[in-house]
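Curious: why these numbers?
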Amino acid sequence: MKHWTEPTGILLIRIPIDWQYLNSAFRDEEESSPYSFQPYDDSIGCFQLSCYPLEELAPSVANANPQGIKKLDWIESNLDDSEFCTHLYHGALGDQA
């Protein structure tokens, strides 16, 4: 496994050694969500990760938890259609969603 750190440093994840980071870093452009990863070879899709302030995505949850979310719980949903098979997991920890 290798490590990838979200550009502002709020998240560190481990990704498989044979996966690549897809977001291109161009001069004078800021990297932003979603961050995408996929295997170097024979990829049929990608893994995307987004990080946003909880206050931005779920203000009522942020207001109800002024000290931040203490425990991460993942909620799963599927957004499948004729072109894509999408599995979505979302949750919040601290002040991030």
